Amino acid sequence: MVSAKQFLRHKLVIQFIEYLIGGGVYFWTGLVVFAICYSGLHWYWLIAKMLADIIGWTLNYTIQRYWAFNDKSLAKHEGRARFRYILINSIDLVFDYGIVGGLKSVGVTPYISFFVSAGFTTVWDYVWYRFWVFKPDAN
User: Fold this and answer.
1) Structural domain tally of the chain?
2) What digits encode the pLDDT tens for the residues 89-114?
3) Taking the model in full, what pTM does it have?
4) What domain range includes position 122?
5) Rounded distance between C-alpha atoms, residue 55 and residue 46, angstroms
6) How far is CA 67 from CA 14, 36, 89, 117, in A?
7) 138, part of any domain
């Protein structure tokens, strides 16, 4: 017999795995788009990263909202969830671009910087997504 505590723990583990899959889609899609634009088309790193992030964020929001943190009560608050997602990811943007730009300025390739930034934002975003951005109604 599975206790309520074990069920909740299992549910949270599954949710975290789904979150990581969504983050992986964002990260790897963004990295591919960045590589095409930065190395292939020789765009300035910031412009290439911005396009990569726009595409990645769109895919990530869809996966996080409708799969990892899916809850019927969120349908009534779609605008609120989008606003909160954009707000948290705007804060991420400051950290992310600071990390990538800062490391690039000391000679570290932006590709390595992507991994450093992702390591920082992975835990940060999960906490915000779970407890604020995609928090279901208490009812």
Assistant:
1) 1
2) 999 999 999 999 999 999 999 999 99
3) 0.84
4) 4-133
5) 14
6) 11, 29, 18, 24
7) no
